[in-house]
Amino acid sequence: MPTGRAWKYGDNVNTDVIFPGKYTYTASGREEIARHALEDLDPAFVGGVRPGDVIVAGRNWGCGSSREQAATCLVYNGVAAVIAESFSRIFYRNAINNGLLTITCPAAVKAIHTGDEITVDLESHTITCAAGTFPFPPMSGSVRQIVEAGGLIEYVKRRLRITHI
């Protein structure tokens, strides 16, 4: 049950804003990728984000190119979930593959403010914040298993009982 502070952003935040394309082929390693998360949109993000924090976004979060680092830079910074009005399909898939919880809940997005404490309850399918409690559709069983495993690679390793890749 993730609990953290909200970092709220608007509509159509694209993958180049989440992780700048100029680093796509030069940044390597978790720390370097994490360091560039949202740097053009919110320069305070990397210095202020704490493990368990949650991104809250408007419509079409993660639109643009298929840049896996847009999901991994958030994971590497400890972001527990992204709650949005809607997601780009490619970002949604990259997020799931990297174990980043994605929730579509327009009512919660409208009610949450930057800095609010948010709790996501996957059992009751609710988001709780200062403004109240908001239901969201449950994830499919396979998506939930992938996210809970920490991403697709970890999920496959567990299913096949592989100890390392």
Describe this structure in words.
- The model has no long low-confidence stretch (mean pLDDT 95).
- Strands 4-3-2-1-5-6-7 form a seven-stranded mixed β-sheet.
- The chain has one domain: Alpha-Beta Barrel (Aconitase, domain 4), CATH 3.20.19.
- The protein has 165 residues and is α/β, with parallel strands linked by helices.
- Helices cover 33% and strands 19% of the residues.
| DSSP, total strands | 7
CATH H-level homologous superfamily name: Aconitase, domain 4
Number of helices: 8
Structural class based on helices, strands and sheet pairing: alpha/beta
Percentage of residues in strands? 15-25%
Please provide the ordered H/E string of secondary-structure elements: EHHHEHEHEHEEEHH
CATH architecture: Alpha-Beta Barrel
Mean pLDDT score: 95
- The first-to-last residue Cα distance is 28 Å
In the CATH hierarchy, what is the class?
Alpha Beta
How do the strands of the widest beta sheet line up side by side?
4-3-2-1-5-6-7
Question: Rough shape?
Answer: globular
User: What ranges have pLDDT less than 50 throughout 5 or more consecutive residues?
Assistant: none
What portion of residues is helical? 25-40%
Count of domains: 1
**Largest sheet at a glance?**
7 strands, mixed
As for the CATH topology, it is Aconitase, domain 4
Calculate Rg over CA atoms.
15 Å
